[in-house]
Design goal:
This protein has 215 residues and is mainly α. Helix content is 65%, strand content 0%. It has two domains: 1-17 and 160-214, no CATH class; 20-151, Orthogonal Bundle (Endonuclease III, domain 1), CATH 1.10.340. The chain has 14 helices and no strands. The longest helix has 19 residues, at 92-110. The model has no long low-confidence stretch (mean pLDDT 95). It comes from Micromonospora acroterricola.
Length: 215
């Protein structure tokens, strides 16, 4: 356990930012950041490099599309152009459509406030996943991404580790269950740990370098 804690701490020191932070989202339990996280999860759900998805999210936000109202008000071409500036070109047209449709759903069903979704599901991860997958472009993987990041502000979701995070844990020789991983860090740090483990699974962070640094 002691060595596992050291590995977890080294990993956090090397990969301290979540994907939401990298995309410029100041995540908090407020409508704007929670919607921005939905946009990021939509972009990360496609078969495209995470860094490209993050860059595309930054471009959408820089263009002012930080709320469902602004996203829906933008034209389809404006959304395509913003995605293109982030080099998100393979799926840009389809994704631009999904972002517009998803913004309308967010407004119609949740009044633009995903805290309502959270309250309706009473913090139950399975209930949250079902509701999140109603958004176009958000399948089981996208819902996992959303909850993995949202647990930093939705404490009732913690500890949440999706398939990719657990794959990263396996590469590092760490426990392959959320509860086991949760014992390695302080509770507020678990979301960061889960995100860092995904980076290991995706090859963005070297498992070998992390374990060597922990010796």
């Amino acid at each position: 356990m002691g060595n596992d804690r050291t590995v977890a701490r080294v990993l956090l020191d090397r990969s301290s930012r979540t994907y939401a932070e990298e995309a410029g989202i100041r995540l908090s339990d407020r409508p704007g950041p929670l919607y921005q996280l939905l946009v990021l999860a939509t972009l990360l759900s496609t078969r495209i490099r995470a860094c490209v998805a993050v860059d595309a999210a930054r471009e959408l936000f820089a263009a002012g599309y930080r709320t469902p109202q602004a996203m829906e008000a933008a034209s389809w071409q404006q959304r395509v152009d913003a995605l293109g500036r982030g080099h998100y070109r393979r799926y840009d047209e389809r994704t631009a459509t999904m972002l517009g449709t998803g913004a309308r759903l967010c407004l119609d069903r949740w009044h633009g406030d995903l805290r309502r979704l959270h309250r309706e599901a009473e913090g139950d991860p399975a209930g949250l996943r079902r509701r999140l997958t109603e958004f176009p472009g958000i399948g089981p993987t996208g819902a996992d991404i959303y909850l993995r990041e949202a647990q930093t502000v939705w404490s009732d979701v913690r500890p949440y580790a999706d398939r990719r995070a657990l794959a990263g844990a396996k590469r590092l020789g760490l426990p392959e269950a959320p509860d086991g991983l949760a014992r390695l860090v302080d509770e507020p740090d678990f979301g960061r740990l889960a995100s860092a483990l995904v980076r290991v699974a995706l090859g963005e962070e070297s498992a070998g370098e992390v374990t060597r640094a922990a010796r």
